[in-house]
């Protein structure tokens, strides 16, 4: 029998020990957008090498996505998304792929990054830094899709369909006009006008100095 008079066996201490016991939380299995990548697929840097047809199976396994990191899987996933929305593998002269940075490539990179950050925030909802990065990427992708929507609507529809994106245009911001806001706006306009006057006076003074130096140089040459 326990001696409840002893401090070690007191009911209060036993209850405190039970309360302080760490709680084991079951971790949720969050599905990832990288799960559809086959593990036997080679990494992006080794996929097109001819020597990969003659190497050992162990080497292929080491260079496959089964042993790859998330960064390497993201490269393969981004390439797949780009190939989805590109018209053909040799389509480098079309409107959507012109320039130093392909519009499709940028949208695909942003889509893969946004989905990765969404999965990360489901596990760590208090990570404010990554949430801010995700919102910035979403806004940047929305602007690119809005530009593509204005220029070529059929390509915009195909891009959203292939990448499984639900496009929502930016809502116009309506500011409530108050007396305080009107006074603040008038003050800012006044400050801007005074600053422009000071800049104009400085530019006029500098121009007169340059003209004086030019006249002096011409007088010396004569």
Automatic annotation (TrEMBL):
Keywords: Mitochondrion, Ribonucleoprotein, Ribosomal protein, Transit peptide. One of its GO terms (molecular function) is structural constituent of ribosome. It comes from the Eukaryota. It is found in: Mitochondrion. InterPro entries: Ribosomal_uS15, Ribosomal_uS15_bac-type, uS15_NS1_RNA-bd_sf, uS15_ribosomal. Signal peptide: none annotated. It holds the Pfam family Ribosomal_S15. GO terms for biological process: mitochondrial translation. The keyword Mitochondrion applies. GO terms for cellular component: mitochondrial small ribosomal subunit. Belongs to the universal ribosomal protein uS15 family. PANTHER family: 28S RIBOSOMAL PROTEIN S15, MITOCHONDRIAL, SMALL RIBOSOMAL SUBUNIT PROTEIN US15M. This is Small ribosomal subunit protein uS15m. It comes from Dicrurus megarhynchus. The lineage of its organism: Eukaryota, Metazoa, Chordata, Craniata, Vertebrata. The gene is Mrps15.
